[in-house]
Amino acid sequence: VMSILLHGDAAFAGQGVVYETFHLSDLPSYTTNGTIHVVVNNQIGFTTDPRMARSSPYPTDVARVVNAPIFHVNADDPEAVMYVCSIAAEWRNTFNKDVVVDLVCYRRRGHNEMDEPMFTQPLMYKQIHKQVPVLKKYADKLIADGTVTLQEFEEEIAKYDRICEEAYTRSKDNKILHIKHWLDSPWPGFFNMHGEPKSMSCPPTGISEELLTHIGNVASSVPVKDFKIHSGLSRILKARSEMTKNRVVDWALAEYMAFGSVLKEGIHVRLSGQDVERGTF
Fold it and tell me: For position 28, what pLDDT does the model report?
C-alpha cells in the first residue's frame, strides 16, 4: 500500500494539518513508511496572490521541515510529470520517506463556474488565455513525431466524450436521488434494501462482577517480583485495590476494566501516546 495525498498550493502552505502530518510521518507508531504528496500548484488560492498567502518562495517549502525531496515540474510537459512521479515512487519505495511532487501549472478558468478571475488577476489571466491547452500541445507533439495519427487522437477524444455523454444521459433516468447513498458507504449486510439499519439493538456487553473484581485486582498489582516501583505509583495502586474491594470505580479504573474485559475476549487493544506511557490513561 502506498499513500498519495493530493494538495492545492495555497492549502499546502496554509493548512496547519500539513505541517502536523509531516511531523507524524516518521514517528515509530504512526509512520505510513512514506507518503507521496502531489501539489497542484496553479498559483492561485481562490483569488489570493501567493505573495499575500505565504512568506516562503515555494508553497512546498513546508516539506523541508523533514528534508523531504521536492520535485518542481512543469505540468505542461506530461512526460516530465510522468518521469518525476516515477522517481517519487521509487524514492518512497527505496527509503520509506515522504516525497513531494510540485506540479507547476495554471488554472484555466476561475475558482468555480460562477467566478470571474479577471476581476482580481487581470494580468495573469491575459497570459493564461494565450496558453495552448496541455492536451492540444501534447497531441500536436505526438502527431508531429508520428507516434499517433490525427485520426487516432480524434477517436480517443470521441471515445472519452462518449463515456461522459452516456453517463450524463443515464443520470437523467434517475428520477429519485438517494442522498443517503452519497453520504455514507453502507457496510455489506448492515443496512436493509431501503438503506435503514437492520437492527438498532446492541448485544449485551455486561460482564460478571467476579470478572470485574479480577481485572481490578490485576490492574492494582505489580506483575514482576521484587520490582521497586515509584512511591507515588504504589499509593495509586493501593487506592485502586481498595476501590476494587469496596466495589467503587473512578474513570481510570473503569477504563482498565473496559480494556481488560476486551482483552479477556482475546481482542487486541493498542494504546499509544505519552499519557498512556505515564499511566494517566
Answer: 86
